[in-house]
Amino acid sequence: MHAAHGVVSVCLPKQQARVVLSASSLGFPGELRLKTADEFNFVFEKPCRSAGKSFTILARPNQRDYPRLGLIISKRCAKSAVKRNRLKRLIRESFRHSQEGLAGLDVVVIGKTMANTQSNSDLTDTLNRHWKELAKRCERS
RNA sequence: GGAGUCGGCCAGGCAAUCGCUGUGUUUCGACAUAGAGGAAAGUCCGGGCUCCACAGGGCAGGGUGCCAGGUAACACCUGGGGGGCGCGAGUCUACGGCUAGUGCAACAGAAAACAUACCGCCUAAGUCCCUUUAUUAAGGGGCCGGUAAGGUUGAAAUGGUGCGGUAAGAGCGCACCGCGCCGGUGGUAACAUGCGGCGGCAGGGUAAACCCCACCCGGAGCAAGACCAAAUAGGGGAACAAUGGCGCGGCCCGCGCUGUUCCCGGGUAGGUUGCUUGAGGUAUGUGGCGACGCAUAUCCCAGAUGAAUGAUUGUCCACGACAGAACCCGGCUUAUCGGCUAACUCUACUU
């Protein structure tokens, strides 16, 4: 218990965040986002992959009890800012809805050119499939 | 009614559920409220702001280029002038200077800038020869010449038409048109001119060719700049302890490295700030043809930073284009489904 003392104190804000989440159930506050380059690199080091036509998704267990999301939508993927925004919003929305199944994972979504041409409902479907697959794979490894 | 010219405005609406960002309140459960554009775009100009540089002047370099006004400023806007196009409403216009210098121009054409003469036209003057005739005359041919009217080329060839004139011609002369200069008149000016006078009349084009002239311009940008500042590396100083240890060295001196504590500055990751109250909007009045100015009242209207304004469902219709703020303004340019509307022009028809 003495050894874990530091970890517990760090976890306190997490616990609060968790409480907030359970109250509003499917929110997407700042704690659920990957922000710094270090956090992205952590995922890139040992990722579980799930690739499709529209996206490549990487994930890695993060030792926390909530998931975190990072987005990489390059200009090559979608030329106009409006299209890039649309993809980001769709991914966030889908992530928000399926976050229960992804708890404890850091996820990075990389957009591909194909994603640009697909409709909203198609993209949501494919994302949902990816989430399930990732959850399974990471559980095994 | 048809055809057309010009401005201005709107840019899917509503409801439910789940979310995001800022602000305020909070009983820390939440609640309230605000939340992309006309171009937010291109980054092409002009400013503010910030830091750096700076006595003044010149050179270089860049920009602007009819006039007057507006403006913080502009390459923008408004009004006006000249020129092109259109029956017209209108529209387009880098629109100072090739009577300072240098350069450039394919092909065609005789000739494209020191002008010149290919086809032509003409033999008057001068001169030679021939024919006719008795002769100082007439005719023909040549030389030396004259000419630029006509033809040919070209985007462009020394103003046009007519008459006179002549050997043939020519602003050679005249008339009209055009042009230039001087003066007058109108206009703030650009400029205009059914005004007056003078001159036969410039000498091609190109200055988004160098250039000349006039005027303007310091550089970099919010990743500007300011503040806080970890780990690790590392700089300077002080104190304490030992008078040590390690390396260089045969030894001493000396030099370098090494302990603990404190202080100082520089400063990376990261964070805070700059960051939205402004050449601001909206009314009303007022000056101005107008751009716009002035006065009063009133309002606060995105501020993210791994980057908010969305998703799903229902519903209505015209079935929704181009497209996403990133320090802030003023312009320009480009993209754009549709729709509404002011003013004006031409034209058909009816009364």
Structural features, described:
The chain has a single domain, classed as Ribosomal Protein S5, domain 2 (2-Layer Sandwich), CATH 3.30.230. The chain is α+β, with helices and mostly antiparallel strands. The protein has four helices and four strands; from the N terminus they run ααβββαβα. The radius of gyration is 16 Å and the shape is globular. α3 (81-97) packs across α4 (120-140). It binds one RNA strand of 351 nucleotides through residues 23-29, 33-40, 70-72, 80-86, 89-90, 92-94, 96-97, 120-121, 124.
Per the CATH scheme, the topology name is Ribosomal Protein S5, domain 2
The overall strand count is: 4
The H-and-E topology, N to C, reads as HHEEEHEH
The helix/strand class is: alpha+beta
Number of domains: 1
Question: Strand order within the widest sheet?
Answer: 1-2-4-3
N- and C-termini, Cα separation: 28 Å
- Gyration radius (Cα, Å) is 16 Å
In the CATH hierarchy, what is the architecture at level 2?
2-Layer Sandwich
Mean pLDDT: 72
Instruction: Pick out the low-confidence regions.
Output: 1-24
Task: Give the quaternary arrangement of the chains.
Answer: single chain
Main CATH class: Alpha Beta
Percentage beta strand:
15-25%
Biggest beta-sheet profile: 4 strands, mixed
Counted by DSSP, the helix tally is 4
- How much helix is in the residues? 40-55%
The dominant shape is globular
